[in-house]
Amino acid sequence: MSESKPAMRPGELLFEAPRRGKPPRHLMDLSPEQRRAAFAELGLPAFRADQVSRHWLGRLSDDPDSWTDLPSEMRQQVAKMFLPELLNPVRVVDCDGGTTVKSVWRLHDGALVESVLMRYPERVTMCISSQAGCGMNCPFCATGQAGLTRNLSTAEIVEQVLAGSRSLDRGQIAGGPGRVSNVVFMGMGEPMANYGAVVESVRRLISPAPSGLGLSARGITVSTVGLVPRMKDLATEGLPVTLALSLHAPDDELRNTLVPVNTRWPVAEVLNAAWEYADRTHRRISIEYALIRDINDQAWRAELLADLLVGHLVHVNLIPLNPTPGSIWTASRPADEETFVRILRDRGLAVTVRGTRGREIDGACGQLAAATT
Length: 373
Prior knowledge:
Elements: H1 32-41, H2 47-58, H3 72-82, E1 88-95, E2 100-106, E3 112-119, E4 124-127, E5 131-133, H4 142-146, E6 148-151, H5 154-169, E7 182-185, H6 195-206, E8 220-224, H7 228-234, E9 242-246, H8 252-258, H9 267-281, E10 285-291, H10 299-309, E11 314-320, H11 334-346, E12 350-353, H12 367-370
Parallel strand pairs: 4-7, 7-8, 8-9, 9-10, 10-11, 11-12
Antiparallel strand pairs: 1-2, 2-3, 3-4, 5-6
């Protein structure tokens, strides 16, 4: 008889981040209602909050002097009170002819995070961080090797997308002016371990201006290594985002090593939470699976993975591992990758192999930040 697990209490933290200096309050931390209330507390007309939000989110303008519908003396007051600089760029590198741009940002307390902008012919995707570092301790991940520094605030998350949006809007990315169409929470950190800020940032991203950026919820992907209680919570939020489950192994014996949180929520429990999410949201689950040479890329594991997934609303995203310096983990041989893909497709599963953009610019998540001082 298996040991029963204690129920999660409402509001209980699954993994508490270290406490460091709290980021200064920012407009993007506040809901539209909170913004109006905050302006009113300063003796400013509440409608000014909508005007500032429209400039910041709709026009992507971070220059208060250009906000000519506000009194000139109010512009600097608002900027000082509500728009502190949260992200200071310390390193920016690009590849793929300038269509892939990776940024390292220093936060107010010195913590480093990364974001990546990837421009494709039909879309622009931003990969953003939800934590500085990560506490999940997955051994093949550069971020996991660094450990967890702290959670990001809602504004620190949203500002990563805004920084990319402004670069595109101003024609600073190869290909000319454009707009962000997709956002994936697959940068540094475990999004479900910073649940509140991640959900609020999604609301900012998908709400129309002046409340938010007006992105499509279907263009947002939130990843997790399998924090089951938070996966269940996300299914109730009314946010039709894509849930990406970083599975990486179909069997508990191996996954306990590759994804240590599996010892708390094993494969069957994690997949049941994913299927519950698909049932409630009618959104296809993305199964993320990093192919690691001689570790999880055997043909029999492909068959076992297919056994678990066939019949469900699911898409498999195979990821050739982007190795980190000094790591024993490396990408699968091409022949093994091809066999793995063929087995899954022969079983009727939708499969893609993720491109390897950014490898020459320390593309593995956390790798560039680790090399930055």
